[in-house]
Description:
- The protein is mostly helical.
- The chain folds into three domains: 1-103, no CATH class; 104-212, Serine Threonine Protein Phosphatase 5, Tetratricopeptide repeat (Alpha Horseshoe), CATH 1.25.40.10; 219-264, no CATH class.
- It is 64% helix and 2% strand.
- A two-stranded antiparallel sheet has the order 1-2.
- Helix 1 packs parallel to helix 4 (71-82), helix 4 packs antiparallel against helix 5 (89-102) and helix 6 runs antiparallel to helix 7.
Amino acid sequence: MKGILHMTEYEKYQVKRAKHLLDSLGMSTGNNVTKDIESDLIKICAGRPIYKCVNEISKFALELCQNIDDIEALEISLRACKNLPVAFRPQAIEIAKQIIDKDPNPWSYYQYGLLLLADVQLKEAEEAFKIAYKLEPSSDLICVHLAKTYVKLNMIDKGLDLLYNFKASTYYGQKYKDYFGNEHVDKSSIAYIDYMISDLENKKSKGYIYRPRKKHQNKIKSDTNQIKDKVNETIPKIDKKKKSDIDTSYISNIVNEELERLKRNGIIEETDID
């Protein structure tokens, strides 16, 4: 059962406002937003396109839900954190724990496990996924992520046993009914499990050992150079004279935007991993 609502009317308004701001990130334009949200977006983005203001919008939404002890506010806060750089991951993990306290269901444990796995807190991630899987044994998604955790714990055999058992169960290739009542086999689930089994068997045959990556400095510079190389590869092949006339600021802008996207999605961070 979801947390009992104890929000004041003002808190409800703040949470609704935060949700609509995050919803706006999925829009190509500022259309279909209320006047309040439009006003917020104008202040936050200052004339920039919404897609370039993901961090600012998400931080603002996070602030709106701050100190509101309600599960809806927590879920929106977690959603905002996921849009932000990895520096916000500890906060996201703490929020996910609070959500579990209010609503301990398989998916709250699953979300918690995903954050722990991304943060390389492997034993904690294992426990979270195990609880989620116990509560929802029909989920191929939870099963696969628990198996991935075992791989990172260098327990490939345990991961394979988990996947083999799922494949042998009635949950493998479950049937479902479409809108018209026609019955179908869930082929995507079959493919997902089979792919993971093949991947882990391949890793095992090659003696794969997971080693956590070491943190080091200047990773951002390294990533910048890699992105520059990628950008240069995508520039149309033109004669040298024309190529020399290309505005280098154009490439720089592409690089900077790509770096921001990578940091926002947690792919790289300020003191990154090798």
